[in-house]
Amino acid sequence: MRVLAAMSGGVDSAVAAARAVEAGHDVTGVHLALSAKPGTLRTGSRGCCTIEDSHDARRAADVLGIPFYVWDFAERFTEDVVEDFVAEYAAGRTPNPCLRCNERIKFEALLDKAIALGFDAVCTGHYARLDVVDGSVELRRSADEGKDQSYVLASLTREQLAHAMFPLGGSTKVEVRAEAARRGLSVAAKPDSHDICFIPDGDTQGFLTKRLGQRAGVLVDDETGAVLGQHVGVHGFTVGQRKGLGIDAPAPDGRPRYVLSLEPVSGTVRVGAAEKLAVREIVAVRPVSRVDWSGPVECVAQVRAHGGTAPAIAELVGEELVVRLREPLSGVAPGQAVAVYREDPEGGDLVLASATIERTGV
């Protein structure tokens, strides 16, 4: 097959490309330039997609002996990922920019261009597995549970998965780094990127305030309705947040307070006890499903990239995915994604559906 290997400049994508070459595919490497000012997006292990990263990707392609190109996707990335991120926070929701990048950049914009140019598949360094079930390509968890990225890929359609390659799905990160060293790839020991790539200093609140400005509001005790403090914008908070609330007085019982909900129109941030964060029902919209929803399905629900899982029953009701949790989860916020899996005793749980959380209940 003709394969386009998306090479970020990290060890995972370099080894994924190497495995595609070794498998006998006709591989071309491509690095996506996602910022108009790429020099500003990496500080040590923070950020990604910098000039440094593009050079690392090119060196890896040279070692593998494959053609290499840099494609400018900065405008599309800004519109579909960065601006979406800002708009979601302004609306009081908590988005996942990595999920959005996979969905709209790597497996929409990039894949569309790859197919138009005659490529059969896009290869990435994601830790997830693909499997053929009843003639359709399905998504499973990776062998390395600690690195599993099926959650941020769960919104991909069957058609997109049919043109995807994840060569690292059966490996651990330790194995991948060791293989990179054996292959003579200079990125073998390169640190993984952390946090949000377009906020390299990790100051999400500062980033959002710079773009949204100050929108004064109040912090309110959910139990009594008492005003506990002031703030400069609901975009500075997320559901489940405990630290940095700016509340001087402790709760009457001495226990910490947490953000329970955000009301962007009124600027109200409601806070209260930890037990009020417990959620037993999730209603999510814009589902991407791979299940025949003739009725409720036993599953495991996941609401964060790492952790946040619970046994559940899921059901497609009209255009909404309704997930009833058998065990409560905390800190579940509108805007997050919920992915539901079918447990597999042999591992590699199968992704059944993904949707964007609209509201929660108890």
From TrEMBL:
Species this protein is from: Actinosynnema mirum (strain ATCC 29888 / DSM 43827 / JCM 3225 / NBRC 14064 / NCIMB 13271 / NRRL B-12336 / IMRU 3971 / 101)
Single GO MF descriptor: tRNA binding
GO biological process: methylation; tRNA wobble position uridine thiolation
Binding site for ATP: A6, M7, S8, G9, G10, V11, D12, S13, L32, G125
UniProt xrefs under InterPro entries: MnmA-like, MnmA-like_C, MnmA-like_central, MnmA-like_central_sf, Rossmann-like_a/b/a_fold
Domain of life: Bacteria
Domain tRNA-specific 2-thiouridylase MnmA-like C-terminal, residue spans: 277-357
All copies of domain tRNA-specific 2-thiouridylase MnmA-like central, residue ranges: 206-272
Name of the protein in its database record: tRNA-specific 2-thiouridylase MnmA
EC class name: transferase
Keyword Ligase: no
Chain residue ranges for the region called Interaction with tRNA: 147-149
Record-level GO cellular component terms: cytoplasm
Keywords: ATP-binding, Cytoplasm, Disulfide bond, Methyltransferase, Nucleotide-binding, RNA-binding, Transferase, tRNA processing, tRNA-binding
Residues in the signal sequence: none
Residues the record marks as site: Interaction with tRNA: H126, Q336
Transmembrane segments: none
UniProt catalytic activity: S-sulfanyl-L-cysteinyl-[protein] + uridine(34) in tRNA + AH2 + ATP = 2-thiouridine(34) in tRNA + L-cysteinyl-[protein] + A + AMP + diphosphate + H(+)
